[in-house]
């Protein structure tokens, strides 16, 4: 199987790149150039095999190894193949407007739901972002509302999808998190996440562990897969540990680990909070075009002549990588673009315009669905946990409170 033009991990450790060792990846800090292979060693996760990729629903994010690794994916695949219940958890930390990188796991989850009937659970961690960012509760609340509209615009099946917001669904999240927190020590939290500034952030891993177990607490024991950017893997590891210790009626959740969509300015994490510009889901076509034309890092040559003669390098070209990650689903088209670029027939400016077209098309469809939504309360209602589901989850977790 060919994986066309996977980005070179400019990061691979070589003698000429001695700094490659120096990177940090935790949910609260991604620094330095990420060495994706080395991370797997550090985290104890496994590269996906061709066989595993072939068993997942076909999707460019997997076919091209943007999601490149995992833990415990076989149990999930078996359930998906045999029609047994299986769940996906993919969440959102509402620290600001959502940009392109944030929706990739959501669209992947939607595909899984369509193909194999996965239930999808989407927790929104407003508590986490309040604690982790210098922002007021009101500001985080506003991001939460806007982000929820983007989540709803993806178009999940309300029968098979649940959306929870930590502070709004605290009646169910909090008691379960408390139970899980009982055996989560500060030493574990520090070892996994590094030192935290507040006890709030020290507690939060218990909340995210709750998210990852929630589908099983609501619907019964079943393989659960968490497709996330690799920086979120520590949450999965902590959850797996606690789930085992607590003797809850749940299986350990598995993970599907993804690379970061490159920043427009070059390899590294696409950041909504850093300096590099990012493309928000609400960006209009002119903004998309302008942002890519002025900011996208290319693999083209310095002069036209040189480019025609020696060709460009798609592996470092950000517009090409965007097409490769998600926006050009057709492998043959993608391969042709790569070939023409390498041959010098396609110029960087032309490649940028292709990316602009595809991204604009994608955003147009997303934005149309977003604009058609009614009030948030009304739209969200069919996705919220029912009273019965809340009761069941608390019961299964052994934390039913007095009033139920
Ligand atoms: N912590 C995630 C972030 O910062 C958001 C999140 C919350 C999440 N719960 C989750 C992601 C569960 C995946 C699964 O982006």
From TrEMBL:
EC assignment: 6.1.1.2
Comp. bias intervals (Polar residues): 9-22
Enzyme class: ligase
Region of interest called Disordered, as start-end residue ranges on this chain: 1-22
Keywords recorded for this protein, A-Z: Aminoacyl-tRNA synthetase, ATP-binding, Cytoplasm, Ligase, Nucleotide-binding, Protein biosynthesis
GO cellular component annotations of the record: cytoplasm
Family stated for the protein in its record: Belongs to the class-I aminoacyl-tRNA synthetase family.
Record-given protein name: Tryptophan--tRNA ligase
The keyword Ligase appears for this protein: yes
């Amino acid at each position: 199987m060919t994986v066309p033009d996977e980005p070179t991990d400019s990061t691979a450790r070589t003698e000429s790149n001695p700094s490659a060792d120096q990177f940090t990846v935790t949910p609260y800090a991604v620094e330095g150039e990420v060495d994706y292979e080395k991370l797997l060693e550090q985290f104890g996760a496994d590269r996906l095999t061709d066989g595993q990729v072939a068993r997942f629903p076909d999707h460019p994010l997997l076919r091209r190894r943007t999601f490149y690794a995992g833990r415990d994916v076989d149990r999930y695949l078996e359930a998906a193949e045999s029609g047994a219940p299986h769940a996906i958890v993919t969440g959102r930390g509402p620290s600001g407007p959502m940009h392109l990188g944030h929706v990739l796991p959501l669209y992947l989850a939607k595909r899984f739901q369509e193909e194999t009937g996965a239930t999808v659970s989407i927790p929104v961690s407003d508590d986490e972002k309040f604690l982790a960012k210098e922002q007021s509760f009101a500001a985080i609340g506003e991001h939460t509302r806007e982000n929820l509209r983007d989540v709803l615009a993806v178009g999940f099946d309300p029968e098979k999808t649940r959306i929870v917001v930590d502070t709004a669904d605290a009646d169910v999240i909090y008691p379960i998190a408390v139970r899980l927190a009982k055996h989560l020590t500060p030493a574990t939290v520090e070892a996994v996440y590094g030192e935290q500034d507040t006890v709030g952030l020290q507690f939060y891993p218990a909340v995210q562990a709750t998210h990852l177990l929630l589908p099983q607490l609501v619907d019964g024991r079943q393989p659960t897969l968490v497709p996330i950017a690799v920086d979120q893997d520590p949450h999965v590891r902590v959850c797996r540990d606690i789930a085992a210790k607590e003797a809850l009626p749940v299986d350990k959740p598995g993970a599907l680990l993804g690379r970061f969509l490159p920043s427009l300015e070059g390899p590294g994490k696409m950041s909504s909070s850093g300096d590099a510009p990012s493309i928000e889901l609400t960006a209009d076509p002119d903004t998309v075009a302008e942002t890519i034309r002025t900011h996208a890092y290319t693999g083209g040559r310095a002069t036209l002549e040189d480019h025609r003669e020696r060709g460009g390098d798609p592996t470092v070209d950000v517009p090409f990588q965007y097409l490769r990650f998600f926006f050009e689903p057709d492998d043959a088209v993608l391969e042709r673009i790569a070939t023409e670029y390498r041959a010098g027939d396609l110029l960087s400016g032309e490649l940028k315009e292709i990316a602009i077209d595809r991204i604009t098309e994608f955003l147009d469809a997303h934005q149309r669905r977003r604009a058609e939504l009614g009030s948030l309360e009304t739209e969200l209602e069919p996705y919220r946990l029912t009273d019965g589901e809340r009761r069941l989850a608390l019961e299964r977790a052994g934390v039913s409170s007095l009033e139920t």
